Amino acid sequence: APLAELSGDHDFQLFLHKNLEFTRKIRGDVAALQRAVCDTFQLCTEEELQLVQPDPHLVQAPLDQCHKRGFQAEVCFTQIRAGLHAYHDSLGAVLRLLPNHTTLVETLQLDAANLSSNIQQQMEDLGLDTVTLPAEQRSPPPTFSGPFQQQVGGFFILANFQRFLETAYRALRHLTR
Amino acid sequence: TQQSGAELDCASVAVGAPVVPMGSAVTASCTIRRERCRGLEDGQPLISWLLDSEPMAGRQRRGVGGTEVSELRVPQLNRPQAKLWCCVEWNGTKQRVGVAEIRAGYPPGKPSNLSCLLDLGDYGLTCRWQQGADGHLPTNIMLKCATSRSPAVTGCTPQNGHSQCTVPRRLLQLYRPMELWVTATNALGTAESERLRIDPMDVAKLDPPTLQSIRSMPPQTDCVTLTWTMTPRNAHMELRCELRYRAPEDPSWGVLTGIAGHAGTVQHCKFLFGTLYHFQMRCRRDLARGYWSEWSVSRNYTTHEKAP
């Protein structure tokens, strides 16, 4: 993939280092919200919630092209962007769940959108095909049958988003020199 | 031409331009409708002018519809603001029947020295600049910002005449260059500052680190090991820090630079034995030569006595 030749490129490396830091920031903010869900609803570990885990497709964010085996940087970038777009929307459910943390959740949504557009611009700078994810075409956040299901849903949205970010972080770091 | 006063009034004053460059000419006309002026008997009203309190003579002529019109030309308006009064002689007195505000000034001066700083609390970007020369006219100042890809221009407006304002987080694009500039606009023109092209994160002001512990390590040597931490909101950043130390009698600080990475420990040697030292640390982001944090709170440590 063209990225392999460019990974020595200074601007590309600067992009990677900056957005690795950005991803760390986002992961820190997601962790803060996970702590808030734990403190507020006593929902702290996945192990205790296996039987009530919501539909696994709560958020569509595959990152199969970002794993070491078959790493396809261009496709991986596109998957990261699509995932950020999806989590941006699903965070709306967390917004309802944690009204006292509205500023943090909204900052998280802003950061997710910013990271996605940073990746898009970098792909365009590299001459790669990019999919424009229409900002206005947002899907509504998931809804749940009751308060407890909403809390569990919020818990798993954040847990899955943290996992998603971890994979995305490793993919970006894989490209650094 | 701008009309002042409705057409049904006793008089209406129109000026060529309400705002003119300083020292330029101003033209105006005053139209008298005698039938609308209470108590003004028949006969030709004598129209005169006052520039603030300075009498001025116009050229009077008959207008359409039985009106009387006086046209005035002020060759040079040399004051930023003036009132142009239209008057009519009546019973031996000069009656003020209409007025127009006129202004003179300059196009706005170019704003300069634009600099910005990102607050890691609310991620607002506060920018400061130096105002350009005063144009003596009502001036609209705005800080404008745009990301390199999007045509949308947003920004903020300084309040109460300050030369600063804060762009809220939602208008910023983090970790990517943005363009910022100041515009000053008055009736005579617009001036723009130089454009600042920065990634807001590169002008983040970090919180000072905290020196946690200081020990002689390894023991019985002239080496000291310090542990330090950063605030949680800076924890995700790759940092470049420097440590300064000084014994009370030292004329200046010793400085250890290039301390890299996240929070952690740092070791330095060649300290005098049995001596009290003051230690401070500061940091900035490794990715950008942005702003240094303030120095940490000072911590004192006395090195141990030399072994006999």
UniProtKB/TrEMBL annotation, chain A:
The lineage of its organism: Eukaryota, Metazoa, Chordata, Craniata, Vertebrata. This is Colony stimulating factor 3. Belongs to the IL-6 superfamily. Keywords: Disulfide bond, Glycoprotein, Growth factor, Secreted. GO terms for cellular component: extracellular space. One of its GO terms (molecular function) is cytokine activity. GO terms for biological process: immune response; positive regulation of cell population proliferation; positive regulation of myeloid cell differentiation. Coiled coil: none annotated. Its main location: secreted. The keyword Methyltransferase does not apply. The keyword Glycoprotein applies. It is found in: Secreted.
